[in-house]
Amino acid sequence: MAVSCAQSQGMPYRKVVVADDHMLVAQGIERLLMDCFDSIVLVSSGEALVASVRRDPPDVVVADISMPGISGIDAMRQMREEGYGMPFVFLTMHDESSVAAEAIRAGASGYILKSSAGDELVRAINGVMDGQTYVTPTLAANAIVNAGRRQYTLTDKQLRILEFVARGLRSKQIAYELGVSVRTVESHKYAIMQELGVHGTLELVRKAELEGLIRH
């Protein structure tokens, strides 16, 4: 069922681009926002998101983070470098406050967990269209709980590699999953170890779990 947006009494917003590689999720978002926008464009990768924005810049972007090719955050960074300033709202399963912080620092206006989506997404869009920043309240609470932890500067790709390492995948398998070279994976893995101050894979996984950097 569609949820009324703030402009429901007047004209709807012009256009939103929804980027998610799970079509059922994207179609669910489309149904949710159909009364809020004249045009809803669905794309399924970071590259397709960039191409769509270049063709016809929308009023707002709703994007997942983990998608084939470049991530949602990297797509946003590219758009920002090219001068596009529309709000980005991330709708994702990544519930780590460190990822949310990275997204906001990179220029996102909103960060919402898929587990708490629904009318919260509409509230977030209405807020960011008014120049506000919206973060899922549970994530904001987690940030307070974890305030005493050291903040690590890992990129979205490094966090994904860290998750694969924790699942027991070797560098060659991770490279295949991400579509990058083994050398790139090894380089990122070394950088992660340097950042966390560890010297081996087992120690890396233990430290990452202790610091809350790995999703379960």
Indicate the topology.
Blueprint: E1 13-19, H1 23-33, E2 37-43, H2 46-55, E3 60-63, H3 72-81, E4 88-92, H4 97-106, E5 110-113, H5 119-129, E6 134-135, H6 137-145, H7 156-166, H8 171-178, H9 182-196, H10 201-210
Parallel strand pairs: 1-2, 1-3, 3-4, 4-5, 5-6
Helix pairs in contact: 2-3, 7-9, 8-9
Describe this structure in words.
- It contains 10 helices and 6 strands; from the N terminus they run E-H-E-H-E-H-E-H-E-H-E-H-H-H-H-H.
- It has a 6-stranded parallel β-sheet with strand order 2-1-3-4-5-6, sandwiched between helices.
- Helix 3 (72-81) links the parallel strand 3 and strand 4 (88-92).
- It has 216 residues and is an alpha/beta fold.
- The two termini are 31 Å apart.
Give a summary of the structure in a few sentences.
It is built from 10 helices and 6 strands, in the order E-H-E-H-E-H-E-H-E-H-E-H-H-H-H-H. With about 220 residues, the protein is an alpha/beta fold.
Rg from C-alpha positions? 18 Å
Number of contiguous helices:
10
Question: DSSP strand (E) fraction?
Answer: 5-15%
Describe the largest sheet. Answer: 6 strands, parallel
Tell me how many strands there are. Answer: 6
What overall geometry do the principal axes of the alpha carbons give?
globular
* Structural class label: alpha/beta
Helical percentage? 40-55%
Q: Terminal Cα separation, in Å?
A: 31 Å
Average pLDDT reading: 85
Please give the order of strands in the largest beta sheet: 2-1-3-4-5-6
H/E series, N to C? EHEHEHEHEHEHHHHH
Q: Which runs of at least 5 residues are low in confidence (pLDDT < 50)?
A: none
